[in-house]
Write a structure and sequence with these properties.
Transposase_11; Transposase Inhibitor Protein From Tn5, Chain A, domain 1; 393 residues; alpha+beta; single chain
């Protein structure tokens, strides 16, 4: 069995510093514990209890022995295992995560959104701890998260974290398109993106009334939109409602700026999205309107595609909750290490799906995220294959 990338990953995990002082007496190497945690997650073990039980029952696993290149694998006690996870250097583990996935990404269309780690609700002995959240940075073209920022659960920390992202050269290559929810429609953020030569599509929020009202007033002064498109690919939601969208774009044909604002520079496009929900059973129709702005020009069809792509980060969050049960995981203190490993797992599922979506390569005959997880559960060799596949080719 090919183990080139797997052993390279194990070697990368060795770079994470161990918090234990007397390293000469360590029976349970941190890199092995972290790898086994990831492997258990890939195989569908989602809770702390299930992961630990899987490790206990797989200490004689032949594939793990081959990966670790040792005859005997030792497993820590449950309490020691918990201490190892909560004391793992999250930034060092994040570095390993980024280095593994960066070769696969296009990094042209980026969605940024925060996710509250619900299992970090303050309780019990950790009443002095704050709720934790994580800012996920997703490549919309291949649908994987390629980086995280760690934060406390409050609005200002999400904004601060995004500012740090924009100031990091890794995320600010010229020409990228950033999209994010209305919370992050801040002048400092959007102007920084514009000055870096990147592009943005930003939602306008109700509590920023001056900006939104000015955008609506500007749109109303147009006799007709510069361009428009009706989403022909309407779809049925889980709530049995049919969704369709109309996108209207308003631009100044004789100049770049479509609207001047004293705080926001270079507003080139205003976008009005009319969403129609039709109840398939009752025929009841609900219409909502959303306004966005962008610092570049393109067609209504292209804007529609970019706007719809943004919701892929919400789909990613859905996979984290459904496939790895992130919302049910209790980790009152330092939940970020296990959160990174969950993202690692969902990324591997998604990359395999991208490569094999229309192929019958699984024993079940289907290629869905759930079936990929199901096959990993029963086949160690397939779990290794998810790590070994070079999706960058």
């Amino acid at each position: 069995m090919k183990l080139i990338r797997t052993k390279a990953l194990l070697q990368s995990l060795k770079s994470i510093p161990d918090y234990r002082v007397d390293t000469g007496k360590i029976e349970y190497p941190l890199h092995e514990v972290l790898f086994m945690t990831l492997f258990a997650l890939i195989k569908g073990n989602t809770t702390f209890k299930d992961i630990f039980s899987w490790m206990i029952y797989n200490k004689d696993n032949a594939i793990l022995k081959e990966i670790f290149d040792k005859e005997e694998i030792t497993i820590p006690s449950k309490s020691t295992y918990h201490r190892l996870l909560i004391n793992t250097d999250n930034n060092a583990l994040e570095k390993v995560f980024r280095e593994f996935f960066f070769p696969f990404i296009a990094q042209e269309n980026i969605a940024i959104d925060g996710k509250w780690l619900r299992g970090s609700d303050v309780n019990g002995q950790y009443t002095q701890e704050r709720h934790k959240a994580i800012l996920n940075i997703l490549d919309k073209d291949i649908k994987i998260v390629f980086a995280h920022k760690f934060l406390d659960k409050n609005k200002s920390s999400e904004i601060t974290a995004l500012k740090e992202v924009l100031n990091d050269n890794i995320f600010s290559n010229e020409g990228q398109i950033f999209s994010f929810d209305a919370l992050l429609t801040q002048s400092e953020i959007l102007n920084t993106i514009d000055e870096q030569g990147n592009r943005y599509i930003a939602k306008l929020k109700d509590n920023q009334k001056h900006l939104k009202e000015k955008a609506i007033k500007t749109i109303e002064e147009f006799n007709q939109p510069t361009d428009r498109v009706d989403d022909e690919d309407s779809y049925l939601t889980e709530n049995n409602k049919r969704v369709s969208r109309k996108v209207e774009v308003f631009q100044n044909k004789s100049a770049d700026l479509v609207m001047y604002h004293e705080n926001f520079q270079n507003i080139q496009s205003l976008i009005k999205v009319t969403k129609t929900l039709t109840n398939a059973q009752t025929g009841e129709v609900t219409i909502s309107t959303q306004y966005l702005m962008a610092n570049f020009k393109t067609t209504a069809k292209e804007f529609l595609q970019k706007i719809l792509q943004h919701w892929r980060v919400e789909t990613y969050h859905y996979h984290l909750d459904m496939l790895t049960e992130e919302d049910d995981h209790i980790a009152y203190k330092e939940p970020f290490s296990i959160a990174i490993l969950r993202s690692f797992t969902v990324n591997l599922y998604q990359l395999f799906l991208n490569e094999n979506k229309d192929k019958k390569v699984l024993l079940t005959g289907k290629t869905t995220m759930a079936d990929i997880k199901r096959n990993a559960l029963y086949r160690d060799d397939f779990s290794v294959q998810l790590i070994e596949s070079n999706y960058a080719d």
